[in-house]
Amino acid sequence: MKCAMCGIKACKNGLENAPKNCPSLDENINNIKELYKTEENYTIAKISAKLSTEQGKTRIEETMDFAKQCGYKKIGLAFCGALANEAQIIDKVFTYNGFETESIMCKVGGISKEIVDLEHSANPMCNPITQAEFLNNAKTDLNVVIGLCVGHDSLFIKYSKAPVTVLAVKDKVLAHNPLGAVYMAGKYYKNKLFPPKD
Q1: What residue ranges in the chain does DSSP mark as E strands?
Q2: What is the domain extent for residue 42?
Q3: Fewer CB within 10 Å, N side or C side of the chain?
Q4: What is the pLDDT of residues 94-129, one digit of tens each?
């Protein structure tokens, strides 16, 4: 699969022009379609497909629309301590708009980095598995990730029982806008993203 490098995009523009190695031609597609018939998948897919065609809404507005249309009332906020101020505002926004919220910060438990064989420091390790387990115990309907570190977000998503969506990702350099580096890949960030090879 090399969809990122495909110039045809037949899946979007008509499969009659699909290259021979196009995943859209795979015989398993019909089996995969069956997964959309389960109740939860059907609801999420239908509402997401509808929302994706709407214009003029921010990500947080779309997230609330998605939650409302799915019937999710209890929202879990899994946030990074570096975005604590943002998480507080987001919590207020969700609450104001009629949702019940549970929120849990990444450093919950104050666990030492020694647990993963790193040297102890005053700054405890992020603890995304506990974040997920606490929100599981709170029986949240939807969990929202706010700035969890790369990898920590992976563990959180792995252990969350509720569906997960990402409201914000962390990028310490680009004001939490990682696509900034992509947009500058041919200019200022070229040597960082494509460093010269020996």
Answers
A1: 74-79, 100-105, 142-146, 164-168
A2: 18-53
A3: C
A4: 999 999 999 999 999 999 999 999 998 889 999 999
For the stretch 164-196, pLDDT in tens is: 999 999 999 999 999 999 999 998 889 999 999
Amino acid identity of residue 151, one-letter, is: G
Instruction: Provide the sign of the torsion angle of the four alpha carbons 18, 23, 27, 28, taken in this order.
Output: negative
Tell me, yes or no, whether 107 and 141 share the same domain. yes
89 and 120 share a domain?
Answer: yes
Regarding whether 61 and 49 lie in a shared domain, the answer is: no
124 Cβ partners below 8 Å, 6+ apart? 107, 109, 110, 111, 112, 113
pTM of the model: 0.93
Strands 100-105 and 164-168: unpaired
Q: pLDDT value at position 60?
A: 98
Q: How far is CA 112 from CA 121, 125, 126, 135, 170, in A?
A: 7, 6, 9, 22, 22
What's the helix, strand, coil split of the chain in %, to 5? 45, 10, 40
Query: Is residue 48 domain-shared with residue 63, that is, in the same domain?
Result: no
Q: What is the identity of the amino acid at 70?
A: C
